[in-house]
Amino acid sequence: MANFAKSNVPQFSVDVYQNEYLPEGSREVNAIVTVTATGGGTIGSAAAAPHLYAPGEGPSAAVVLMVDCSGSMDYPPTKMRNARDATAAAIDALRDGVHFAVVGGTHVAKEVYPGAGRLAVADAATREQAKRSLRTLSAGGGTAIGTWLKLADRLLASADVAIRHGILLTDGRNEHERPEDLKAALEACAGRFTCDARGVGTDWEVKEVTAIASDLLGSADIVADPAGLADDFTRMMETAMGKEVADVALRLWTPLGARVKFVKQVAPTVEELTGRRTEAGPRAGDYPLGSWGDESRDYHVCVEVPAADVGREMLAARLSLIIPQPAGASAGSGPEGVQKLGAQGLVRAVWTDDMAASTSINPQVAHYTGQAELAQVIQQGLDLRKAGDFDGATSKLGRAVQLASVSGNADTAKLLAKVVDVVDAATGTVRLKARVEEADEMTLETRSTKTVRVKK
């Protein structure tokens, strides 16, 4: 999938932040790894003026828009109209030369444009044809999201491009297929394309939508008012048009006797990556990082090493960025069948009897440990509230308020204040609100994994 045409490929860098000093007998090494891509040249320019790129100038890409057309999209009737307008706005944001299609989703998936199992190539004519085809979108039928994803996968696979991406909109629960069918579809699509998912209104299931985005390395959000769909779809498509490198992976090598305890993205959102590891030779594994434009993300890596005596030091892990190459690839690929991106970092362990050195917590590690806990306690608190355990919910959401206050996560603090009355943020003293708007609770749940970056 690493076919870059004439685009300027971004340069990647890796920075490691840690306290490498451990007390005698300690085995756990923690580090925050900042991955940054710069100099690609399409962020901003392609998004602000997508039609200034001649075909082949920007990174080759394909996008499928999946629009919920189930019966509930007619309640209120303006919802379907807003969805059509939003899809049209996203089509307008397509860069010339990008392959694209529109899928209408109910209990089955239907090709809306261009049809016949193929993708169109964006230019002035095809954008207008696609927008005219949206008039055929009407509400009726059920919801089986797995079928939408499988059709998107087939369409995207037909294009020889670097970036494959989906945008999915739903307003209801996935009631017309078994949960295991959706899970199987997500497993089949993972690693083949990325996907942003949006829930419109308040009748959809947060955990379904966030699982789609999580499994397919995209973003999830709520658009409570359908009138906001067009702006949201435009921003999503502009972001997709700024992606320049697909299938980036973090390769993590550890020495004999060491093991990786976990790897998780911690900014801009919390995302668990540990279970997505694929083996890459002796004591090495790859963790998928998705598609990249000009941007920076932070990851928390935790490695367990053999205990050692004071004065001993060792390399706990070596990090590098790679792009796995398909069988038969040759251009730019190394002997291991990967394209190396030239960015590396080292995680070290040094055992010392200096108590001040060994007990100091690295500020980046401390910050993101708190951000990960913040996401977790919000989810736990909301689940307990729904289950009727109001004491447990108060305790968890109080801890969330405290963590948001300490870390300066003002956006999450504002969302929490719509669910609880804050008595004292510093101590996490709160009271559950007697009445909470459903949209406010869903917004807090959907955005609970969004983090603020540490000031380095």
Shape: globular
Q: What value does the Rg take, in angstroms?
A: 23 Å
* Range of helix content: 25-40%
Global structural class: alpha+beta
| Biggest pleated-sheet summary | 7 strands, mixed
Number of helices: 12
Beta-strand percentage range: 25-35%
**What ranges have pLDDT less than 50 throughout 5 or more consecutive residues?**
1-7, 42-56, 330-335
Average pLDDT score: 92
Number of strands: 20
End-to-end distance, in Å? 34 Å
Brief characterization of the structure:
By secondary structure, the protein is an alpha+beta fold.
Describe what this molecule looks like in 3D.
The protein is of the alpha+beta class. Helices cover 30% and strands 30% of the residues. It has 12 helices and 20 strands. It has helices spanning 45-48, 78-92, 124-133, 145-157, 179-189, 206-215, 229-241, 355-359, 363-386, 390-407, 410-416, 438-446, and strands at 11-17, 21-22, 28-38, 61-68, 99-105, 109-113, 120-121, 163-170, 194-200, 220-223, 245-253, 259-267, 271-272, 278-279, 284-292, 295-304, 313-324, 338-351, 420-424, 429-432. Strands 4, 5, 6, 7, 8, 9 and 10 form a 7-stranded mixed sheet that branches. A hairpin with a 3-residue loop joins strand 12 and strand 13. Helix 4 packs parallel to helix 5 (179-189), helix 9 (363-386) runs antiparallel to helix 10 and helix 10 (390-407) runs antiparallel to helix 11 (410-416). The longest helix is centred in the last third of the chain and has 24 residues, at 363-386. It is globular.
